[in-house]
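User: Sequence in, structure out. Go.
Assistant: Echoing your sequence, followed by the structure tokens.
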Amino acid sequence: MPDHIFYTMQKAGSPFLDKRLLEYAGEDWYPFHMPGHKRTPLEFPNPYSIDITEIEGFDNLHHARGILRDAQERAAALYGAQKSFFLVNGSTSGILAAISAAIPRGGVLLMSRNSHKAAYHAAYLRELETVYLLPSRTEFGISGSIQPAHVAQALEDLPQIGGVFITSPTYDGVLSDIQKIAGIAHAHNVPLIVDEAHGAHLAFSSEFPDSALQCGADVVVQSLHKTLPCLTQAALLHVNSNRICLDALRRFLGIYQTSSPSYLLMASIEQCIRYLKKEGREQMARFAQLLRQFYKKARTLRRLKVFEPSTCPPEACFAHDFSKILVSTGNSGLTGKDLYDALLNGFHLQMEMSSGHYTTALASLMDTPEGFLRLSAALEEIDKKSPAPSLAQSGRPLDAQAIYQIPKPGMSISKALECPSEALPLKGSIGHISQEYIYLYPPGIPLATPGEILTGSLLSIITQCQRQGLPIEGPADIANNRIRVVKG
């Protein structure tokens, strides 16, 4: 299709395109959020011209023998993996496939509690028993690292565990000691899967923590679109050992990924890999310099506070990806949502998310010096004008340590979801077994999962989150007034 026809379609398109996407793209909103390309295109053809299916000469993602096999081999060579698979259904499909291939049906999975909901879905689909690793607590009020000693203790106590699943870095950029955890897992002859969705960029600069691939994880799942110049949903699954059956991985990727994989997304992955090979280290060095300059300025803020790992002991935060900029409301009278709204409405800076007491800016190597200057100037102005906390305020906003509690198990996820259920008012559900997830999205970490007993303290936390404007999702009742519980 000629380029001018595509342009005409844009101009004469639907209200969804014209009134929202195109208007938004034409204004001065700055994206401190995913995707990592930051609306700055690499060289790329008209998408309609390359939107094809598995026609002659273009290989098949699920049986790659030609150009797609070669492209995946180039990705593996760049990242230093034994084998890499393109994912066109995001890291979600990779997490589902990796857990499904690693643990037999009905087996036991040791997983960090602060895992993405995809890991819980895998546990349901494979009827797995879940044992949780709780992250350390931090002074900043975010979930910290998973302790290697806790992994070792769990594997000693429960020899039936068939695999370990860790999220590193977290949505907040906190990493765990993957090298040590991998050594412990391998000593017990079980594989380590790492959700590195937010860390696809780590391998390209020594200024950042090491990637899980460098640290010995067996399977690593990365979302290229989160931190690199790639289209949304584009991701990679890397295999780094033979501890998980490759044929099983392929089989489950065929189940969890679409049978009509997008050549647009695969072309985007290939273009991103080419860009990283040619310019990745140079651009990451420039990016790290911009980040250092931003953090230096941020240290002069009076009331607001930007997280730096030096404020945490190593056991609480083993390492931190400083491209995840966490701005706490500190000793101001603001909540995280207040700060998020002030940056959005007052300065046209779109943050990634807000939590009870902080907001998150996701930066990438595609960010500009001007973007960082805008963020610094905005924070300085808000900092000067922000009120001090008043006695009339209802206490400090909730942080991760208050929100994420030790779960009270009642039955497995899969058993709970297969039981008869009934809908109860949320306030009347105390003591019942949940049949639904309750989580903040973002980041998608459960407050409760199916099979866990609903407690008074949990419902109090949910109420406080709602009062602070935090996005509670999961229950079928989108107003969050009722929840389905196991009947009887």
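User: And one key feature?
Assistant: Confidence is low (pLDDT under 50) at residues 1-12.
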